[in-house]
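Escalation from tier 1.

The customer reports that the assembly of two entities below gives different C-alpha cells on two consecutive runs. Tier 1 could not reproduce it. I'm attaching the input and our single run for tier 2 to review.
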Amino acid sequence: MSNTSLWLNLAVFISSLAGFICLALASDRQGEFLLHRAPRKQERRIFRLIGWPFLAVAWLLCWQGWGWSIGTVAWLGWLTMAGAGLTFYLPWWPWQEKKPVRAKPTPVAKAAPKAAGIGNTESASRMSTRSLVLASSLLAIPAAFVIYLTQQGPQPVFGNNALQSQIGPWSFALAETNDQAPISGPTGAHRKAFQIRFCQACDPHIRRAYLQVSKPEPMPTPRQAFNSTRWTRSVEIAIPPNSEVEHQLWLTVEAKNGEIYHQAFDFHQVSPVTAAFIEQMP
Amino acid sequence: MKESFRQCMAWLHTWVGLVVGWILFFVFVTGTAGYVDDEITRWMEPERPLPMQVLPEQSSQMLDQALTQLQTHAPADSKAWTITLPHQALNPRATHGLSIAWEEMSQPGQRGRRGVEELDPVTGQIQPETEPRATAGGTGLYRMHYALHYMPYPVAIWLVGICTMLMLLAVMTGVVTHKKIFTDFFTFRPGKGQRSWLDAHNIVSVMSLPFFLMITYTGLIFFMSFYMPTGREIMYGATEEGRQAYFQDIRQQKHDFLPVSMPQAPLSAMMHSAEQTWGKNSIASVHITHPADSQAYVELRRTGVTGVYWTRAETLRFNAIDGSAMKPDNTSNITGDTHRVLLALHEGAFAEWWLRWLYFISGLLGCAVIGTGLVLWTVKRRTHHQKRLSKATALSVSERFDAAGLRLVEILNAGTLAGLPLGLAAYFWANRLLPVTMADRAAWEFHVLFLVWGWSFLYACWRPLKRAWLELLYLTAAAYGLIPVLNLLTTDRHLGVTVTHGDWGLAGFDLSMLGLAAIFIYIAIKMKRKWHIASLSKKTATPANLHTAGVNG
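Tier 1 run:
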C-alpha cells in the first residue's frame, strides 16, 4: 500500500547514507580524505562489513514499508539520492586536511585559455554586419509573432460570422473552423471542419450533436458527431462528391432525454466558401 | 587494429551521445515534466474549483443515488455502467468526487461512445462542470516526450525510438569507458575545468544508472510492436485486420455484451462485504456489465496500489441478480504481465508522492547527465582548439571545419540547455497571458514554447558565447521566478490561496517554479564567478589569444 510516512523515507535515506559513508571510508581516495591517513587493511574490512549491511537494512525497511516490488524501486531511488548527495557534498566536508594552496592556481591557469571566448574575438567589421542581421532578426521574429497573434481572432463560434440560431429549445452558435475551402483527404474525399457551441444552460442537456451534408436517414452515423460532449464541440465532415448546394447542411441534436431534433441550413449561412466549392464541383 | 576495446567504446560513447544529445535532452525534460503532468494540467486549468479537502465518506446512499441517475441518464443500450466513489485516484492523479459514467454498445469498427456526469455526493444531483481554458496542459508536455511536435506521429515515434536505442548504447558504452567505476565511485573534484565536468558526468550517471537503464529500456518496450513488427506479422498477417486482431487479443476484448440494467441484488451488501476485506473508504469504483455468455455482474475496484503492477488492481465481483460472489476472469499471462510491469516502471504511476519526487529528481539527473555530457564535448575540444589557434597563423580546411563544428555544438548547447527550459517557462507564461477565447489557443501555447526556444538559438548565435549562456540563464531564472507572481496577478489560484487551503498539488507547482529559478540562478552565478576569474588571469597571462580571429569559419 502507498506509505507516505516521513520517518520511513528518512530512515531509508539515512541508512543508505550511512552505508555509503562507510563504503567511502573503505575506499582509497575518500578513506584517506576523511581519515587524514590511508585506512589500514583491517579498518577497510570493518568499514565494508558495516557499510553493506546498512544498505541491506535500507532495503529491508523499504520492503517492510512498501512490499518488495515498490520497495525495490524506492530503495534504488533513495540509494541514488544518498550516493549522489554524499559525493557532491564531500568537497565541502568540514574536517578535511588543510592542504597547501598549490591546487588553487591550477584551475585559474587551466581555465585561462577558455576565456578567449570564441565570439568576442571577431574582427570588428565582420562582427558588425553579421550581428546587425542577427540582432534585427532577434527583434523581428517576436515582433512578427506578436502581430500574427493579434490577428488571431477569437474562436470562430465567438466570432461575428458565426450563425446564431435555435434548435428545439436550445440556442447555439455554429461556425466554420476556418474560411478555407474544403481540403481533399488522402482518399479523394473533401473534408471541412465546423464548430458549435450551445448556450450555457442548454449545454448539459445535449448528449450529442451531428452535422452532415443532406438529410440524415434516419440518424447520422457516429462519424458525423461533434467530437466533444461539452462546450465548444468540433467536427470535420465529409463533403460527398455528388453534393449539391440544395442538399443543405443538416444539424441533428440528440438530447439526454432521448429527443432528437433535425434542422437544415443553407451553406451560404454558415460557410460561403463551401457553398462556392460545391457549386463548382463537377 | 591498434585501438583497444575501451577506446573504441569511448569513441562510440562520445559521438553517439553528441548526435542524439539534444533530442534526448528534450525527451528527458518533457518526460520528467510528465511525472507531474496531472499537477501541471491542474495548474494550467485555474478555472477548476479547489479540490475537496476532506473526502465525503463512501456510503451506500451514494451508490443508490448514482444508480438512479444512471438509469435516467445513460442510454438504454449501455454496455457498461461505472460509478466512481470519492477517493484519491492514481491515474490521473486527482481527488475524485462522486461521478457516473457509461459506455454505449460499440458499432462495428468503432468504439462505444462514453458519457460522464459529476454528481453532488450529498444530494446525488448532476453538477454542472466548469469550463477550463483550452490547453494541452501537462499531458501535452508528456505526449511530446515520445510524439515530439510538428511532425507525423510515426516519424516521431521512429525518431525517438532510434535516439532511445542510441541512448541505451551510450549508457552501455559509458559503463565500459568509465575506467575506474569503483575507485572513483565517490570522487568529485570541483573547480578543475574539464576534470570537474567529467567527474560530475560520471557521478550522476553511475549513481542513477538503475534509473537510466530502466527508463531507456522500458521506453523502447512501449512501442515494441511498432519497432519490431515481424513477430506480429508472422502470427497475425501483415494486414490491417491482422493488426486489429493482435491488439484485440492483447486487450482481451472478445466478449459480446448485453445491455446493462439495474442490478437486482443490493449494492450496499456488496459494499459492506468489500469493506470487510479492504477496510472503510477503500472502494474506487463500481462497474456493472452483462457479458452475453455469463450473468450480469458488479465489480468493485479497490483504491490505491499493492505493487508496481498497479493496473491490476484488486477487484471483487458479485452476481448482479442474487449478490453472490463470483470468481473474476483470470486474465494474467506471464508475457503480458511482464510487458505491463515494465511499462508501469517507466510511468511510475504507482508511486506515492515521496517516490514520485525520487522519480522526478532522477529525471532531472538524466537531464544533467545529457547536459554535462554535451558541455564536456565542447570543453575538451575548446582547449585543444585554443592551443592550435595560438600556434598556427592560418587554419587548414579540416581545422576550419573542426572550428565550425565546435562553434555549432556550442550554440546548440547554449540554445538547448538554457533555451529549452526558457521555452518551457514561456509555455506556462502563454497559458496565463493568451486570451481565453482565442482560436486554437492550446496550439498557440506550444507555438510560444518553440518560438522562444528557437529565439534562444538565434540569441546564442548573436551574443558572445559566455554572454549568451549567462544572459539566457538569467532570463530563464527570471522567467521561472516570476511565474508565481504572474499567477497571482492573473488568477485567484495563487500561493496565498493554495497554501492556506492546503492544496499542495497546486501550491507545489508555484513553489517548484521558485525552486527551478533558484537552480538556474545558482548555475549562472557559479559560471559568472568562474569566468570572471578566468578573464582576469587572461589579461595578465596570454594577451596573444586576443588576436586570434576567424574562429567562426
